[in-house]
User: Fold these one by one.
Assistant:
Number 1:
Amino acid sequence: MSNPAPSPGVGVLDQGTELTFPSGFLWGAATAAYQIEGAATEDGRGPSIWDTFSHTEGTVVAGHTGDVACDHYHRLASDVSLMADLGLKSYRFSVSWPRVQPTGSGPANAKGLDFYRRLVDDLLDSDIEPWLTLYHWDLPQRLEDEGGWPARDTAARFADYTRLVVDALGDRVRHWTTLNEPWCSAFLGYGSGVHAPGRTDSAAAVRAGHHLMLGHGLAVQALRAARPDAQVGVTVNLYPVDPATDSPEDVDAARRIDGLANRFFLDPLLRGSYPQDVRDDLRRICDFGHVRDGDLAVIATPLDLVGINYYSRHVVAAGPPEPASSGFVSGSTWPGSEDVRFVSRGVPVTDMQWEIDAPGLVETLRRVHDEYTDLPLYVTENGSAFVDTVVDGRVDDVDRVAYFDAHLRAAHAAISAGVPLGGYFAWSLMDNFEWAWGFTKRFGMIYVDYDDDQARIPKSSARWYAEVIRRNGLAAQ
Ligand code: FCB
């Protein structure tokens, strides 16, 4: 299938006194299953790697788990009402693989699918377009026991699971994302081990990255076969990577980190090949013998759109390595580039200590458009954690409003520069389980009071975003 023309309205601006977005721009908010659903053992759901990992001592801050999370599983209807109050045009959620297929193979668990049927029906009844992500990191534990993503068979299992989901929901869901952020699954899950399943094996991380992308390609083909009209994409997390100085060593450090963070995924997915320099950098770790003939053609199966998650920028310098990462390490976040230092520029940061860099969003979108594809792009996540306090029943999160405002202006600038940007999803609809940080980091536009019966309190950012959606833009500055 060839790349379709962008839908009408994508990337076409109305000029006016306001910063108006193209008509039909898809204003959304995003969440992920393990971060909000809870009900970890209900209705036949099997354990995922995140259940096992979060129940392992020393993995998640304060021993938090997603057992209950935001209890969204039991609050689906009222949560969808909150989305309708915001005026959301779309809601990006993920399906929990072990809820649908408790051991990662075999028939579907009907009760698990029923939950997503109800969710999708409620969304459609509220005129909110469902945007379904098939994999947001919760691999069934059984599949990890059988080798996990470093094992080739997991890719085939993912395609089987995709068929179950599209058979159940394909008549109602138009937008499909295969994977969320394969870099995190591969390099945090199997490299540094700070995410589930917590393995620290660089070679396994490289293989995992490949099999995730292979699973993606097979899933795209399964979706196309079942629903030729589906809009299918993948979501990658991208960063501009700058050298701290123009010394050749720093420039090379930036090339290497850009290779692992961005091009390791963009090139196979959108060009059908691994970048040669990245393969060379990784030679000492992995011979790429796991890549079989034909894999890259599957991985590069044409898409309808590309999802981009954007949070920050990396500025890097060549060594000397931090003591903790010196010498040969069996696993790392940046295999083969453990000597690279991440340099802080001293600019304002969020509660994650991520530097706030809205121009980086323009650069990222333009790069993907200029260097890789004419496909419509969507910002499938962008947002910030800040320390929120409830005062008189209100949360006035001015820093988060400023973050969204700056990044939406950047998104608008990218559109003005010719990027076919079709939509923007705020991360996140509500506060939730922030992976290794547990509930200690709040990204939501809706505050969740975990200690007071999960009360939901829309923050100032929720009201602000509702107004942006209502006027389809921002006031010009
Ligand atoms: C992204 C994840 C998402 C959330 C945000 C803050 O990497 O996709 O689940 O944790 O970061």
Number 2:
Amino acid sequence: MTQAAPKQDHVLIFDTTLRDGEQSPGATMSHGEKLEIAALLDEMGVDIIEAGFPIASEGDFQAVSEIAKNSRNSVICGLSRANLNDIDRCWEAVKHAARPRIHTFIGTSPLHRDITALDQDAMVARIHDTVSHARNLCEDVQWSPMDATRTERDYLCRVVEAAIKAGATTINIPDTVGYTYPRESAELIAMLLERVPGADEIIFATHCHNDLGMATANSLAAVEAGARQIECTINGLGERAGNTALEEVVMALRVRNDILPYRTGIDTTKIMGISRMVAAVSGFPVQFNKAVVGKNAFAHESGIHQDGMLKNKETFEIMRPEDIGLAATNLVMGKHSGRAALRAKLSELGYELGDNQLKDVFVRFKALADRKKEVYDDDLIALMAEASLNDEDAYLQVRKLRVVCGTDGPQEAELTLSIGGVEKFIDATGDGPVDATFNAVKMLFEHEARLELYQVHAVTEGTDAQATVSVRLAQDGIVFTGQSSDTDTVVASAKAYVNALNRMVLHRHRGNLSALMSSAS
Ligand code: KIV
Ligand code: ZN
């Protein structure tokens, strides 16, 4: 097979953190959090932001509309199933953007054709009708054959041709279940470019899931074969093992430009800031040894490594921390540091704050510095995450907590919670201070969710270190995570628990996305 010539050297970055990422069980984000993330994605040079699935719920619709209205440079895209209602609703949300896009999809593999009860011909007809309808509304239409990598090759060519004829301007090839392999991923794109009439007029995209840990390799292989759009998420957030990680493909294209001569429009110095933001609001912490953005990605512990690094940084570093927006220094802040110093430090860490936000964060910083002699970068990052998680609009908020601990007898917690704006107080006992606190939360806000995970880790060293607490709750097979940091572990625990409950409340106000994804009409 001769490989079709790539069209240009620019690879478009399509970020789906707010759609495929947010679909991940437990990663539900609030309206405000979505808007903040979209603004950061736009600012960092993401070409296309998939802002949500407008038919899924009123909340999704509002978020996509608002993101579209606020967009500056990025194309704003919404997802819709292959039916006219979905597409109309999607258009209503994205039409406010300077550059709107409708993305419509249908499962084309034999398994999906069975579910939708459409035979091959009926599905081609549906693709024709829905894509032409979308194209009558919007000039920029993306179409995806879901589960493309498990679709018969001849049939895949046929459906892609039908979508192009109906007006699709981008064809996305999803590896929905993370099944493909780099050579196969490349061959698939090369085959479509070669066999499908009109393929050289449109952009091919690659959308990989990471079930076998090959999402980044599969995406890059597709680019080498001619795909010019990579679909990805920050931190690789996404269902099951997640999606291709934006930071990995972008940095691979940059660091190995010698063998991957393509460019993106991403300002890589914004990577760390948005990675932290997404970890905080999604409640999915980044694994320490995660490529590019993990806490240890630039840490050199061993003697040999440290010695090499001191002599020449290139000995063990293929990219510089500054390239991804990691501060090279770890200047310590304290209670005498002023507002200007805090602003400069936060900016170095990737957080650009407006005056009002700075005022608010400064108060929190001073309170922390009063309790903790030295405030390190990691403390500030935890503080910023805390500020974004415990927003004033949250349904449940911890107002006051007092625990009484003794060596004998049950521990006691006196808790005041604000529930939908009304303050409620209770006194509860338990087997230890955290158990007593959680019992108090459960008594004030009754729920069936089961505690699946409770984890504490120190942000920095020392007995005055802040603790970051992660809590995972599950109800009816749906997972809700919460996180919080404080120098007091019990306070952090209460806030993390309440944070997970807030996500559960938010989820109840939304439709069940996975049910929507598996029904085609
Ligand atoms: O993984 C997938 O197939 C998807 C499609 C909706 C593009 O996310
Ligand atoms: Zn996907």
Number 3:
Amino acid sequence: MPLEIVTVPCLSDNYAFLAHDAASGETALVDVPEAAPVLAALEARGWSLSHILITHHHWDHIGGLDEVRAAHPARVIGAQADQGRLPSLDQAVTEGDVLTIGGEPVHVIDVSGHTVGHVAYHAPASQVVFTADSLMAMGCGRVFEGTHAQMWQSLSKLAALPAETLVCSGHEYTASNARFALTIEPDNPDLISRVADIDAARAVGQPTVPSLLSLECATNPFLRAADPGIAHNLNLSGAPAEDVFAEIRRRKDNF
Ligand code: ZN
Ligand code: FE
């Protein structure tokens, strides 16, 4: 049985996620923007937390940790590189480490760039990856701490996961990401049809997260920086993909 994934809207535009294994009763929480919606989602299902996975140190991903931990004495896991700026961890992880949730392996992937020490958690058997502010629906996080080359490498690792992987990212920024994507690749038919789907979903208040990796690879400009058509659109034909990525990211920063 795959992990059951529950999306928990938090703050104004953040998402936390629950990953529940029915057989063992174990439940992992990924990120804690605030406590109340997470505690309510657990209570509604009669679940208690076994693990809390932290992706990176920003307050909108850890702000509710102490309160949730007080109610659910779960094992708190985060990046070793972030140990000095996260609440105290029960387990510090690095790329390649494998956790077990409900008997299922969960692989740690270093996706530094937005921050140095940002990690993603990939559960291959359930075909889900938790990416927070690295890969986002139609976008990616701003490059605050790492380099553009590092962020491109991180996104490339995620793009190489199986196409049917569900991408659970950290924010509902998709509508604005979609507007931007159209400026980079106005003639991409997959992008045009996805933007229509996003607008329809947002018009009735539906979340656009999680999303399928195959759809991200077809429409997310930040994953498509190696595409010759995009390089051409940006007058960067022949440039390395990481340079094209950097230009797309700079344009988005000013969009
Ligand atoms: Zn962040
Ligand atoms: Fe964030």
Number 4:
Amino acid sequence: MERTLSIIKPDAVSRNLAGAILNMIQDSGLTVVAMKMIHMSKAQAEGFYHVHKARPFFADLTAFMCSGPVVVSILEGDNAIARYRTLMGATNPANAEEGTIRKRYALDIEKNSVHGSDAPETAAFETAYFFSNLEIVG
Ligand code: CMP
């Protein structure tokens, strides 16, 4: 069993797509073991994306991520990290495959509707960034 962090980003929440995206996640067989809606501050978004601090898109990315509410959740399942990344599709929706969340809903490389952890170490940091053990079921 593995856990990964999912964020349904402001572009998707503001278009009322959280339910449709959660349906895709649950239909894929991943189990939601924690979930909440939050509106991040700039500092919270910067802390979450600190690994991208030196990237040219860091300021835009963190401004976007605190522009409105997001739905954060922890997904559990065998190989959950890789399975969720496959379900999300490529970071740039122009390159995303049919049937993926980003192909269906993402607007561009920044407003790409969802985030998922990319490795066990980042999943551990990211799940702990938003959730305490008391907020995780199972
Ligand atoms: P995410 O999986 O949340 O991780 C970092 C985010 O940076 C990524 O999704 C994109 O939404 C965003 N981003 C914005 N511009 C770029 C870019 N040029 N290359 C990669 N990621 C970008």
